[in-house]
């Protein structure tokens, strides 16, 4: 089993620590069941306490649930397609006289995947620890009648919150909800970034094949007995056409893989970008109006998490786009001018295919790419909505005061 297939196997089987090859795995069906329970408990709490709830809290709570359920949906509905894509990307393209370079690039991509995955897992553990400790801090910060507001989600449980044992049982239930939500989302992103890294390194292999095409053909022709000069050029042209065809087919293969990747993860992109924008401006309005230490801390953690999620999806797109642009530059730097006219025309058609705007990338439902440029626009739009909500709220409070 290949490196990528090994990662996807542990992720798709449920919640597990793939780096340690842990045998303790929480099945995906159980994770889905817990997500449904989380949704039902939030809905029931909203119905029972509708008049006493803040609409901002509702936006934040259901924003997390939508991310969680979308991640589970991708895991269950696209499981076989993710497995198939993993097997295809594990099969590195073979080029004549490039065995050493292929091995080096493959090892380098695996090292990058291990390093990035370890870094992101550690960041997720730190983030989850803060979310776990925040309700505990609120428990001691607020009075007994206010402890219901100290929980992570507005979830309903049959246990009385005015008792210590009821509060801590509910608190443990919500910690599990946060753990499942973050683990599922973290593992899906690790899988997405793994695919992006291996696609990028295989594009580098395509570029190396084009840069060394004449050198490799000369090495292959050293083992062939050539009778005349005419025969030499005929054999060279045949080998040149074969190597060019091999490289173009490799790029088309990566193009199809990137298209499947963008199609699988497009629901998560929509939830993270558009849903995250409303969560950011809503929690910012709450922090700006209440101005308490606990609310400010919660707003800082929530906004930082949403921006980080939007950033990492933009990072995936930037990695793919950057590798396509690098391959395009390599194609121009390759000795295409030494090729025969017939083969040169085919190579120039391939150069026209290397357009980063046409390459499949993650896009939102509105059609915009999730890159760094659009990330700044999303953050700016969130601030504009935040300013609008603050203005409307202040005018409403001023009107209500004047009426009294």
UniProtKB/TrEMBL annotation:
GO molecular function, one term: olfactory receptor activity
Keywords recorded for this protein, A-Z: Cell membrane, Membrane, Olfaction, Receptor, Sensory transduction, Transducer, Transmembrane, Transmembrane helix
A GO CC term attached to the entry: plasma membrane
Subcellular localization: Cell membrane
Protein name per its UniProtKB record: Odorant receptor
Recorded topology in the membrane: Multi-pass membrane protein
Annotated transmembrane regions: 24-47, 59-76, 119-141, 150-169, 175-199
Claim: Translocase is one of the keywords in the record: no
Pfam family, one: 7tm_6
């Amino acid at each position: 089993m290949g490196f990528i297939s090994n990662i996807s196997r542990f992720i798709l089987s449920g919640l597990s620590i793939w780096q340690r090859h842990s045998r303790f795995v929480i099945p995906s069906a159980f994770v889905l069941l817990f997500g449904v329970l989380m949704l039902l408990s939030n809905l029931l709490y909203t119905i029972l306490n509708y008049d006493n709830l803040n609409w901002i809290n509702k936006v934040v709570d259901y924003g997390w649930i939508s991310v969680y359920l979308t991640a589970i949906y991708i895991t269950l509905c696209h499981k076989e397609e993710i497995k198939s894509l993993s097997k295809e990307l594990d099969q590195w393209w073979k080029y004549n006289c490039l065995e050493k370079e292929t091995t080096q690039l493959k090892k380098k991509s695996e090292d990058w995947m291990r390093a990035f995955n370890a870094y992101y897992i550690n960041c997720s553990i730190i983030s989850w620890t803060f979310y776990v400790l925040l309700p505990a801090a609120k428990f001691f910060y607020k009075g007994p009648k206010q402890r219901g507001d100290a929980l992570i989600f507005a979830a309903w449980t049959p246990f009385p919150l005015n008792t210590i044992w009821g509060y801590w049982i509910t608190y443990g239930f919500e910690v599990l909800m946060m753990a499942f939500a973050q683990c599922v989302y973290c593992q899906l992103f690790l899988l997405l970034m793994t695919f992006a890294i291996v696609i990028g390194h295989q594009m580098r292999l395509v570029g190396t094949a084009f840069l060394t095409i004449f050198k490799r053909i000369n090495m292959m022709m050293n083992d062939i007995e050539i009778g005349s000069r005419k025969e030499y050029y005929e054999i060279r042209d045949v080998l040149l056409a074969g190597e060019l065809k091999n490289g173009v087919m490799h790029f088309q293969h990566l193009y199809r893989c990137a298209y499947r990747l963008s199609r699988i993860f497009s629901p998560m992109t929509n939830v993270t970008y558009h849903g995250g924008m409303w969560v950011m401006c809503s929690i910012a309005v709450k922090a700006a109006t209440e101005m308490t230490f606990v609310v400010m801390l919660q707003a800082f953690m929530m906004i930082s998490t949403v921006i980080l999620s939007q950033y990492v999806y933009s990072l995936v797109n930037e990695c793919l786009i950057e590798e396509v642009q690098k391959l395009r530059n390599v194609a121009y730097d390759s000795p295409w001018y030494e090729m025969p006219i017939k083969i040169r025309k085919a190579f120039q058609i391939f150069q026209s295919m290397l357009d980063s705007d046409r390459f499949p990338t993650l896009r939102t439902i509105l059609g915009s790419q999730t890159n760094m440029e659009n990330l700044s626009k999303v953050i700016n739009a969130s601030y504009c909505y935040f300013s609008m909500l603050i203005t409307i709220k202040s005018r409403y409070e001023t009107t209500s005061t004047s009426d009294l």
